[in-house]
Write a structure and sequence with these properties.
Residues 318-358 have a biased composition (Low complexity). This protein is an alpha+beta fold and 358 residues long. The protein has helices at residues 3-30, 47-60, 71-90, 93-115, 119-131, 136-156, 159-168, 195-210, 215-222, 245-253, 282-309, and strands spanning 36-40, 43-46, 174-184, 234-238, 263-265, 268-279, 310-313. Among the domains are: 36-156, no CATH class; 172-279, Chitinase A, domain 3, CATH 3.10.50.40. The chain is globular, with a radius of gyration of 28 Å. 30% of the residues are buried.
Length: 358
């Protein structure tokens, strides 16, 4: 009497199992395989992860927005990312603990900066993140990976190495604190200014300063160096070696607290006042030296060891041109240099660094 019931139950179970298998197969068929774009000893990077990382790089550094999809740039970025993942995984427990704490602080700061942006710029950044499938949690993960790798290198640097580096490179720790107002050969509106007109205006500005004019007010009104327009033309405790030759010479030789004659550089005429000169102490220079030496440790790994650990890389081809809104991050990216929009800065580099005013 019981046999028909067991038979019905068995048929029902088999039918149910078949349905489940069909559903699973359909789900698997409908799911796009996440291609591996990088494989290395101990791990791999998928296409979706790399897409998120490239987006992270765009948000953190606007320079990458227009070039990130070039083959050579993708390969460099992927290689560097793999290197950071390896270094982070190898890091000591101390480095992981300290690095995670520091990364949490950094992430909070960056997110707060994004939140504080004007509505249009914030939307531009969030659109880029959405387009690149980058969430804030993933951003935090990338920051943590980088910070742990850097922290591990920091902990390998000894006080003796820092002291030795300082003694052997003392000239690089010389500084000058200067104020300047630049009358550029190109004005704020991008119009060309004749050299004679620039010199005449620079001389007028100098006289206003000699007569007791306020640096803050005059810099805001006249200077074409947007990096210092809002702080009275001040570059505080900066290394003169980073500046173009004529400006460097003035910073090194002009009498202190005197307003010198306009100094011509490739950017225009600078009215300069040197407020201080000196050499940073070992204690003041420790963090800078630590960053230099730990950077050398990471660079050595990237150059000497990493190539032997990477098994394969297959960077994706770009599917579309960079987002039209990408350029909106150039002046608002959390990591953008405050002087990134200052092509008329006296720095030797065409694109001034944030260190100029530090």
């Amino acid at each position: 009497m019981s046999h028909p019931k067991r038979s019905s139950y068995s048929r029902f179970a088999i039918t149910l199992l078949a349905v489940v298998l069909l559903v699973c197969l359909a789900a698997a068929c409908g799911k796009k395989e996440d291609k591996v774009v990088g494989e290395y000893e101990g791990g791999q990077v998928t296409a979706s992860e790399f897409k998120q990382y490239k987006t992270f790089m765009k948000v953190m550094n606007p320079y990458y927005a227009s070039i990130i999809d070039e083959d050579s740039v993708q390969e460099s970025v992927l290689s560097s990312y793999i290197g950071m993942k390896i270094l982070s995984a190898r890091a000591t427990e101390e480095a992981k603990t300290q690095g995670t704490e520091e990364a949490n602080t950094n992430f909070t700061t960056i997110k707060d900066q994004i939140e504080a942006l004007d509505a249009d710029t914030k939307k531009s950044i969030e659109d880029i993140m959405k387009e690149g499938d980058l969430t804030y949690d993933q951003m935090k993960s990338f920051i943590t990976t980088q910070t742990i790798a850097s922290k591990d290198a920091d902990l390998k640097v000894t006080d003796e190495q820092i002291s030795t580096y300082y003694d052997e490179n003392k000239d690089s720790f010389k500084y000058a604190t200067v104020r300047h107002i630049l009358i550029g050969f190109t004005d704020k509106e991008g119009k060309t200014r004749e050299k004679a007109d620039a010199l005449k205006l620079a001389q007028e500005v100098k006289q206003k300063l000699v007569d007791g004019g306020d640096w803050t007010a005059l810099a805001k009104e006249y200077t074409d160096d947007t990096a210092t327009a809002e702080n009275g033309g001040l570059y505080e405790k900066a290394n003169p070696d980073q500046w173009v030759e004529e400006f460097k010479n003035a910073a090194n030789t002009q009498p202190l607290n005197e307003i010198g004659d306009p100094v011509e550089t490739e950017y225009g005429y600078h009215v300069i006042k040197v407020e201080a000169r000196g050499t940073s102490t070992l204690e003041e220079s420790k963090q800078t030296i630590l960053s230099t030496l730990s950077g050398e440790i990471i660079d050595k790994f990237m150059t000497d060891e990493l190539p032997g650990l990477i098994k394969s890389m297959d960077v994706p081809k770009p599917s579309a041109s960079p987002s039209a809104s990408a350029s909106a991050t150039a002046s608002a990216s959390p990591s953008a240099s405050p002087s990134a929009s200052a092509p008329a800065s006296p720095e030797a580099s065409a694109s001034p660094s944030a260190s100029a005013g530090q």
